[in-house]
Specification:
Distance between the termini: 52 Å
Largest sheet: 2 strands, antiparallel
Number of strands: 4
Helix content: 55-70%
Radius of gyration: 26 Å
Structural class: mainly alpha
Strand order of the largest sheet: 1-2
Order of helices and strands: HHHHHEEEEHHHH
Strand content: 5-15%
Number of helices: 9
Length: 199
């Protein structure tokens, strides 16, 4: 179930007294007042349509990311703007606008809607993986590594290959940099320094 948090939504309406006066006593008001009333109606209509679009896009994304919702970040499905645009018969630029600076609360935390889009990595069996899921897996491997013998990029590549993900060592190095994680030799040095400080 996906819904907007209504209390945070912009709720607007036109003053009924003003509306009635403009309609019943048109001679008292010039064209400018009528134009402003029409602009106000258009603004409210556009905001309502925007909310509907946000809901439609959010629901379509979450429908694609059922595995993520049920199992976590490692199960993110590769998704591109075009997938959602085609499903909803909208332009890709609309999907991009709708997902920018819009956040969704999920069982695994709060994420920008754009988070659910990412590049595709194919494994040796031809199955698709989300690059974000791979990033998360690399982060988890490094987080749980033996601090006295950290994983090299080559070792991470071998582990992922055993898990069915064919990924080059240089790509792992690139992802490690994106994650702002130091290389294995520097991670090892840091652990030694911390150990000495604790003594």
């Amino acid at each position: 179930e996906v819904r907007l948090i209504e209390e945070n939504s912009l709720m607007l309406k036109i003053n009924e007294d003003y509306q009635n006066i403009v309609k019943t006593e048109p001679d008292k008001f010039g064209k400018e007042s009528k134009d402003k009333l029409q602009e106000a109606k258009w603004l409210i209509k556009n905001l309502r349509e925007r909310s509907i679009t946000i809901i439609r896009v959010s629901r379509a994304i979450m429908k694609e990311q059922i595995d993520f919702l049920e199992k976590g970040k490692l199960f993110l499905k590769p998704l591109i703007l075009k997938n959602i645009a085609e499903k909803l018969n909208l332009h890709e630029s609309t999907i991009s606008r709708v997902t920018t600076n819009k956040f969704i609360s999920t069982p695994h935390g709060i994420f920008e809607l754009k988070y659910f889009f990412g590049s595709i990595i194919k494994n040796e069996n031809g199955n698709d993986f989300s690059s974000k899921a791979i990033l998360f897996r690399i982060k988890e491997l490094i987080k749980n590594e033996n601090s006295s013998n950290p994983f090299s990029e080559e070792q991470i590549s071998i582990i992922l290959k055993k898990e069915g993900v064919q990924i080059a060592r240089r790509t792992i190095a690139k992802y490690r940099i994106i994650l702002k994680i130091l290389p294995s030799n520097q991670r090892k040095i840091l652990h030694k320094v911390e150990f000495i400080e604790q003594l």
